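Priority: medium. Attachment 1 of 2:
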């Protein structure tokens, strides 16, 4: 990853500048103030050409202009900004989430967004090991349909040292790991959501939605081993896809609950969620 001081967003730091050491981090904005690398690789449908785009090029019209009026753009790679090169990719054209529709950038609340269709779209990062019992997951997304059992993030099989985060019914989120699961009441709707999960080594799992604690339990992760990280479906089955607009997913191999307020402030300053 390359860095230069640009003076952008004067007086503020990127999320990863303040709260670093992420295992994987995906966003359509720069998560570091000094990042100049591309954040996404896009395929346009008229000739299937591919090109990389920085966060600035995504937001300033460069991406949409390259895709072209009347054409659609699909994400081949969502680049990992953590510095670990755990890029989320999709080589199969029919399974690539969309970012440009008929020449216009897809947005949620005025910010660039990836659209997952709920039937075939997903991105996969090559298997990697978290090797920890503490994880934190920060997500910015919106459900486009309230279909049951939509899995928007998964890390391997929750039955064997992995986890998944899904929407199992009309009014809950589900966090599952070690073959068990817990549902968190959350007053679900189709609004843009900042959802955070903090799983601690003492077994206390907390879920926050838009700064509000929606539930906690005694389930622990004990994630050990090498697992595939997927966005948009459940990694150990192809049956649970998610119909959503996604903007940001960050996975920490540590408990970040002491940084929760700062993480929320950084994200809300950009996305204006709540």
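Attachment 2 of 2:
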């Amino acid at each position: 990853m390359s860095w230069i001081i640009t003076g952008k967003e004067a007086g503020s730091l990127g999320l990863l500048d303040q709260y670093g050491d992420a295992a994987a981090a995906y966003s359509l904005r720069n998560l570091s103030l000094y990042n100049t690398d591309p954040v996404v690789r896009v395929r346009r449908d008229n000739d299937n050409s591919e090109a990389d785009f920085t966060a600035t090029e995504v937001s300033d019209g460069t991406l949409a202009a390259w895709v072209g009026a009347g054409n659609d753009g699909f994400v081949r790679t969502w680049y990992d900004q953590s510095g670990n090169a755990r890029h989320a990719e999709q080589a199969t054209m029919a399974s690539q989430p969309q970012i440009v529709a008929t020449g216009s950038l897809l947005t949620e609340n005025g910010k660039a967004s990836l659209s997952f269709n709920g039937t075939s779209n997903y991105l996969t990062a090559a298997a990697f090991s978290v090797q920890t019992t503490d994880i934190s997951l920060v997500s910015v997304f919106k459900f486009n349909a309230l279909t049951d059992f939509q899995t928007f993030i998964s890390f391997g099989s929750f039955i064997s040292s992995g986890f998944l985060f899904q929407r199992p019914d009309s009014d809950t989120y589900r966090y599952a790991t070690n073959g068990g699961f817990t549902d968190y009441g959350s007053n679900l709707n189709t609004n843009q959501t900042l959802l955070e999960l903090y799983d601690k080594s003492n077994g206390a799992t907390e879920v926050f939605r838009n700064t509000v604690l929606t539930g906690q339990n005694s389930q622990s992760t004990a994630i050990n081993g090498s697992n595939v990280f997927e966005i948009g479906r459940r990694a150990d089955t192809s049956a649970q896809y998610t119909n959503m607009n996604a903007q940001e997913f960050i996975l920490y191999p540590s408990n970040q609950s002491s940084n929760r307020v700062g993480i929320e402030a950084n994200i809300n300053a950009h996305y204006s969620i709540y």
